[in-house]
Design brief:
- This protein is about 0% helix and about 45% strand.
- The strands form four sheets. Strands 11, 12, 13, 14, 15, 16, 17, 19 and 20 form a nine-stranded antiparallel sheet that branches. A four-stranded mixed sheet has the order 4-5-1-8, with no helix packed on it.
- By secondary structure, the chain is an all-beta fold.
- It contains no helices and 21 strands.
Length: about 250
């Protein structure tokens, strides 16, 4: 007699720069090792966990440890997780990125979550058609590009919004969102790329570049933490680029 296993949670781990699968990860459930099935596309599946909320700790060589808390019935299968690079990983010598260090006064902002937003117009996406509330498909200028997938964006009129592009429909030419729109979007409006950075013990974090803003001009980034905002006007990303962002004491 075949036993039917109930999927309790599933993660798809992707490299935050290439968006390729992250293999060989280790995932703890509530601090304990728990059996899972790993697939070649970076998907990790847990079955028959107790039907209660769980905390997951995800680690892989060269990446920062990521923590996720999911309810008893996760809203998405799989939950897509972009794995951020550890500041000292050798992979950073080969890719375009911003190596950032965040300070408050002279003290590092250790283990903080900081939202980064690309403010430069080049790199933003323009809506060809309006987005209706409750819709999950958007028509964007510029056509299809692989780098757009699995990227978070915010609407210009609502900086706190979080639009996560997970797929592209070649038949309709529209990009698909993970969750329905909570508020409508106007035709011609801009979507700006956003990243949720997590600093290490020394206030350091890495922001890998996406291909859309690898242009030869200055880049403006906005960083927000606990209601404070700091802007950084800098050169285009490169393996050697390092910058310090200071928040007010």
């Amino acid at each position: 007699m075949r036993t039917i296993r109930r999927i309790s949670a599933a993660f798809r781990l992707l490299d935050s720069y290439s968006k390729g699968p992250v293999l060989g990860a280790a995932i703890l459930v509530d601090g304990r090792r728990t059996p899972y099935v790993a697939k070649g596309d970076g998907t990790y599946v847990f079955s028959d966990l107790p039907p209660v909320p769980h905390a997951y700790e995800i680690s892989a060589p060269g990446y920062r440890t990521v923590r996720r808390s999911l309810p008893a019935v996760p809203p998405h299968f799989p939950e897509v997780v972009l794995m951020p690079y550890a500041p000292g990983t050798p992979a950073l010598e080969r890719i375009s990125c911003f190596r950032l260090r965040f300070l408050r006064g002279e003290r590092p902002l250790a283990e903080k979550k900081i939202r980064a937003t690309l403010m430069t117009a080049v790199g933003a996406l323009r809506l060809v058609e309006p987005g209706e509330k409750g819709g999950r498909a958007l028509a964007l200028a510029g056509g299809y590009a692989q780098g757009l997938l699995y990227q978070h964006y915010c609407a210009r009129e609502n900086p706190a919004s979080d639009l996560f592009i997970t797929d592209y429909d070649q038949g309709t030419g529209q990009f698909l969102l993970q969750s329905p729109l909570e508020t409508p979007l106007k035709k011609g409006g801009l979507l700006r790329p956003v990243w949720d950075l997590e600093t290490d013990w020394d206030g350091a974090a890495v922001l890998p570049a996406i291909g859309l803003f690898l242009q030869r001009e200055e880049v403006e980034l906005s960083f927000t933490l606990e209601g404070q905002e700091q802007r950084l006007l800098t050169a285009p990303p490169s393996p050697s680029l390092r910058a310090v962002v200071e928040f007010e004491p």
